[in-house]
Amino acid sequence: MLTITQKSLPRRHLAALIALFVALSGPASAQSITAITAIPQAGNNIFKNLGHGLQVATICHDGGAVKIAFQNLGSDDATLNWWYGMHPYKAQPTGSNPGLLNASGVGVNAYGLVVRAGYEQDFWFIGVQIEGQFIFANNEGNTTVSLHAFDGTTFCEVRGTALFAPNQSGLKVPRDVFAWPNSLITKD
């Protein structure tokens, strides 16, 4: 939550702040929310095209693989950033789970990489469940995927939501917004 103190905030700063919020919010109709539900039986796969260059594949005990694949179907490269946790922790195939966070409560780390056009990034979950957030960004916009995936041995369950927001053209930040004293704007 953004809090602005009453300490002599000049009207021009308030006007610039309102202009910034309006510019950042954009039209609500430009955003879309998509439900993700995939419950394949072992040996089956389900592909969910989320649009805007992103497809999420649920691979359930296909050739020994149990994973979620973020597939870049677009014509340009994309970035994929994430944090997620696993319960109970169980070693997955070597190198298959980049950026798995420490679920001990000590800290949370975020990770990311470039997913080339036509390629994918996999997250394995053999015999466990994973929960996390994945952010896919390309020239069209940003898709934030909140996801739960569970390996039930004879089936897999993947549920979540994907929120897409297009890139905004011509976003203009008021020139003096970064000159404001830090004490005037705080984040709760």
Descriptive notes:
With 188 residues, the chain is mainly β. It has one domain. The chain is built from one helix and twelve strands; from the N terminus they run E-H-E-E-E-E-E-E-E-E-E-E-E. The strands form three sheets. Strands 2-11-10-9-6-7 form a six-stranded antiparallel beta sheet, with no helix packed on it. It has a four-stranded antiparallel beta sheet with strand order 3-4-5-8, with no helix packed on it. A two-stranded antiparallel sheet has the order 1-12. A hairpin with a 3-residue loop joins strand 9 and strand 10. The radius of gyration is 20 Å and the shape is elongated. The C terminus is likely disordered.
> Which secondary-structure class do the elements indicate?
mainly beta
Query: Kindly, what is the distance between the CA atoms of the first and last residues, rounded to a whole number of angstroms?
Result: 5 Å
Q: Give the strand order of the largest sheet, numbering strands 1, 2, ... along the chain.
A: 2-11-10-9-6-7
Strand content: over 45%
Cα-based radius of gyration, to the nearest Å: 20 Å
Largest sheet: 6 strands, antiparallel
Mean pLDDT: 80
Count of strand segments: 12
Low-confidence parts lasting 5 or more residues at pLDDT below 50?
182-188
Question: How many domain units?
Answer: 1
Note the total helix count.
Answer: 1
What global shape is seen?
elongated
